[in-house]
Automatic annotation (TrEMBL):
Active site: E147 (proton donor), D294, E388 (proton donor), E406
Cited SUPFAM superfamilies: PA domain, Seven-hairpin glycosidases
Gene field: EDEM3
All copies of domain PA, residue ranges: 624-709
Name the UniProt record assigns to this protein: alpha-1,2-Mannosidase
Length: 867
């Protein structure tokens, strides 16, 4: 045995609640497959088919790993498009992403235990020898403490765990003498200086050679770190302590966790995304289960499983209750503010949260796990991969996809929990998509844009550490793996740590930590890590019955986006029209424009001009009661036939829209309750539905930040009645002004909402010159066409138009995402047109067309005058 001084079953006391081996065994039960209970639903997959898919995973791994070893090693990562190694300093910096690269052959270390899981024992033996021979952990490189911990320390410990397992079996690794563990210990000591803060939270970065704060270190001045960065150390650090007997690692990681726990927001029991490592103040107060926080929660529950410390379970359960109360809006998981947890902080989700259903399986909360997983799967079916971020109506918010494994992870755990062959089919789709869209001759390339299928020259090490492990395990039967996977726990990077560590070297005294141990009541253990055979005894269709109502949640919300051309040809569906293919003479293309509310006018000099048509709702405003609009209005007579003003917060926008619509309002304006918020400084904001059907909502809705909303509120205070015009971005004409105004182009961000009082018109509209509104006949010139609804307010009292940057959203009935209409390969968030639309347009089509004809006539007149 190693210098750890403790082998299987050794160690001192065990937790009060139960012999720890029992807890570990319970944990293992989480992974017990329930295949035997299947009777109907998705067709069962034959052993042959599963083996075929397993072999396919092996072949894919060989392709990725083989190319890394051949063309990149000893570099940290493979660049699969240019087929060479990524060496830090030699490639243009990618910012924080590069902090994972420490010139320590990252991909090789991260792949070690995957080799054993995939039954490539010989290759594992070779890989370990290479690590011992080639890897230097003393480079003058600034690395991320978090990434180095989960990938390198975790990789070395996972490799060590399986090396000693193999050695014990007596065939492979007979020469092994804990060398990987020695390296892990060396690395552990290198990371310790990062914890030299008063809080005990680690600095986010460290120089492997010089540590922190020396001039040569080039780091140590940071003040903030992410919660996950500080809270995802305990498994690796405790394993290192327990393997080696050096308690300091576990102590440091516990101290950081204790501090985070103390700093949780006490009324919501949530944590923010980033924290000041010196003061403990929350720097970012938004809270979710994805980027920046994710593995903090994961490690609390897994620390309970691995270390047998009930206080971790208690903390996890407290947070979990808060997550389910505020963040979980099944099937969505939406970020909220820690101080105002009823307020959504975002209307989009990030891809990292896809791990959460897997964690919910470990917690034993299967229903929401199935729901969220199903929602994510539908997003994947729509875009082939999970985009880095997607909106609540499942549009792409950030189109990149670096081959993240979280969804495969959750698929694996859900399959183990339910035994439902549906999840095998899901895995099969993942394999197909990877081969079809990400595979390149020299490995697998990250997707730069899931909508266009473009690639990035990048294959992250976690792709080998995690993706292949989860996919292989999904299709593997017990006999396909040379050891019992249920004796191990997966770290966040899917490295394997043996559960027997729970009873080994338990020398870290809880007195060293700030939190007191209290005996937990039994409710804390309810469903934690349940026996799945108890969960699904009589109802093999349980999972299916939960998925069924969500079957069309994505398509219903918005029709499928980009269909690859070849795919659509195969399916007979029409491929989307790309801007570069647009022909001004093609009636079908014009029809598409028309549906977008855009008309095209041929000018005499051969240019074409685009006109976007306003969709307008005009009316007097009235405040709703209750002002938040979250329940039936008590003043329907006041809002009937008017545009209702409602305060943001406390319920979904859809709920507000329904309540004012039921009271007879013809539109709604939601005003941000965050005092001081303004479109000048606030990021793009979108209103969203709650993921459910919103077809019943037919009135237009508009969101205004507090500064802009204040203009309306001030006007109400000053004048008895205030009339507003809700309209699309295009210039709208007040009848009185119509003659004076020129039509505008779609680029115009100027006024569309006018505030007028009975006695005085407050409105003033800036106009673009007609030249500015013209576009030339190159089809690319169509790209700025934007059918988003928006509004702006302009007041004569203001020097500049305060609404120039106003971000607003109209809840109209059509998906305004250009993906389906006119695709111009968007690159940026803004290009992806993430504004949400739901409900129905208020204006009947006839009147839209009438407006349209008027516009065309106006243009024709102008055309004559000008040319
Ligand atoms: C991995 O390195 C780990 O799973 C981490 O916890 C978060 N993200 C990446 C993969 O997406």
């Amino acid at each position: 045995m190693s210098e750890a001084g403790g082998g299987r079953g050794s160690g001192s006391s065990v937790p009060q609640r139960a012999p720890w081996s029992l807890v570990a065994a319970t944990a293992a039960l989480c992974l017990v497959s329930a295949t035997s209970v299947w009777t109907a639903g998705a067709a069962p997959m034959s052993r042959e088919e599963k083996q075929k898919l397993g072999n396919q995973v092996l072949e894919m791994f060989d392709h990725a790993y083989g190319n890394y070893m051949e063309h990149a090693y000893p570099a940290d990562e493979l660049m699969p498009l240019t087929c060479r190694g990524r060496i830090r300093g030699q490639e243009p910096s990618r910012g924080d992403v590069d902090d994972a690269l420490g010139k320590f052959s990252l991909t090789l270390i991260d792949s070690l235990d995957t080799l054993v899981v995939l039954n490539k024992t010989k290759e594992f033996e070779d890989a370990v020898r290479k690590v011992l021979r080639d890897v230097n952990l003393d480079n003058d490189v600034v690395v991320s403490v978090f990434e180095t911990n989960i990938r390198v320390l975790g990789g070395l410990l996972g490799g060590h765990s399986l090396a000693i397992m193999l050695k014990e079996k007596g065939e492979y690794m007979q020469w092994y003498n804990d060398e990987l563990l020695q390296m892990a210990k060396q690395l552990g000591y290198k990371l310790l200086p990062a914890f030299n803060t008063t809080s005990g939270l680690p600095y986010p970065r460290i120089n492997l050679k010089f540590g922190i704060r020396k001039p040569e270190a080039r780091t140590g001045t940071e003040t903030d770190t992410c919660t996950a960065c500080a809270g995802t150390l305990i498994l690796e650090f405790a394993a290192l302590s327990r393997f080696t007997g050096a308690t300091i690692f576990e102590e440091y990681a516990r101290k950081a966790l204790d501090f985070l726990w103390e700093k949780r927001q006490r009324s919501s029991n949530l944590v923010g995304v980033t924290i000041n490592i010196h003061t403990g103040d929350w720097v970012r107060k938004d809270s979710g289960v994805g980027a920046g926080i994710d593995s903090y929660y994961e490690y609390l529950l897994k620390a309970y499983v691995l270390l047998g410390d009930d206080s971790f379970l208690e903390r996890f359960n407290t947070h979990y209750d808060a997550i389910m109360r505020y963040i979980s809006q099944p099937p969505l998981l939406l970020d909220v503010h820690i101080h105002k947890p009823m307020l959504n902080a975002r209307t989009w989700m990030d891809a990292l949260l896809a791990f959460f259903p897997g964690l919910q399986v470990l917690k034993g909360d299967i229903r929401p796990a199935i729901e969220t997983h199903e929602m994510l799967y539908q997003v994947i079916k729509k875009h082939n991969f999970l985009p880095e971020a997607f909106t609540t109506d499942f549009r792409v918010h950030w189109a990149q996809h670096p081959l993240r494994p979280e969804f495969a992870e959750s698929t694996y755990f859900l399959y183990k929990a339910t035994g439902d062959p549906y999840y095998l089919e899901v895995g099969k789709t993942l394999i197909e998509n990877l081969n079809k869209y990400a595979r390149v001759p020299c490995g697998f390339a990250a997707m730069k844009d899931v909508r266009t299928g473009s690639h990035e020259d990048r294959m992250d090490s976690f792709f080998l550490a995690e993706m292949f492990k989860y996919l292989y395990l999904l299709f593997a039967d017990k006999e396909d793996i040379i050891f019992d996977i249920e004796d191990y726990i997966f770290t966040t990077e899917a490295h394997l740590l043996p559960l027997w560590l729970s009873t080994t070297n338990q020398r870290v005294s809880k007195k060293n930590t700030t939190s007191e141990y209290t005996e937990l009541d039994d409710s804390n253990f309810d469903w934690t890590c349940p026996n799945t055979q108890i969960l699904f005894p009589n109802d093999p269709l349980y999972a299916q019955s939960i998925r069924e109502p969500l079957k069309n949640v994505v398509d219903k919300s918005c029709p499928r986006g980009i269909i690859r051309v070849e795919e659509s040809l195969r399916s007979g569906a029409k491929p989307p029209l790309r801007a570069r293919d647009f022909m001004a003479t093609n009636p079908e293309h014009l029809e598409i424009l028309k549906k977008m509310g855009v008309s095209l006018i041929h000018l005499k000099d051969g240019r074409v001009q685009l006109v976007q048509h306003a969709i307008q709702t005009r009316g007097f405003v009235a405040s709703s009661k209750p002002y938040n609009g979250c329940s039936e209005l008590t003043n329907p007579e006041a809002v009937m036939g008017k545009i209702a003003l409602i305060q943001r917060g406390q319920c979904m926008f859809a709920e507000k829209a329904r309540n004012i619509q039921n009271a007879g309002a013809i539109g709604g304006i939601v005003i941000d309750d965050n005092e001081g918020s303004s479109s000048d400084t606030a990021p793009l904001f979108q209103m969203a539905g709650d993921g459910k059907d919103t077809d019943d909502i037919t009135i237009p809705m508009l969101f205004l930040f507090s500064k802009e909303g204040g203009i309306i509120l001030d006007a109400i205070r000053e004048y008895e009645e205030v009339e507003v015009l809700l309209s699309d971005k295009a210039k709208d004409r007040d009848p009185e002004m119509e003659n004076e105004e020129q039509p505008s182009s779609e680029n115009d961000s100027q006024s569309a909402e006018q505030i007028a009082s009975r006695s005085q018109e407050i409105d003033l509209v800036d106009q673009e010159s007609p030249e500015e509104s013209s576009v030339n006949s190159h089809p690319e010139a169509l790209s700025p066409v934007d059918t988003d609804s928006a509004a702006s307010v302009s007041s004569s009292e203001q020097d500049s138009n305060p609404m120039e940057n106003l971000e607003t959203t109209s809840l109209d009935g059509e998906c305004t995402d250009l993906d389906n209409q006119l695709q111009e390969q968007p690159e940026t968030e803004e290009d992806s047109n993430p504004n949400v639309s739901w409900g129905k347009k208020a204006q009947p089509i006839d009147s839209i067309l009438a407006d349209w004809n008027e516009d065309i006539e106006a243009f024709e007149m102008m055309d004559k005058d000008e040319l």
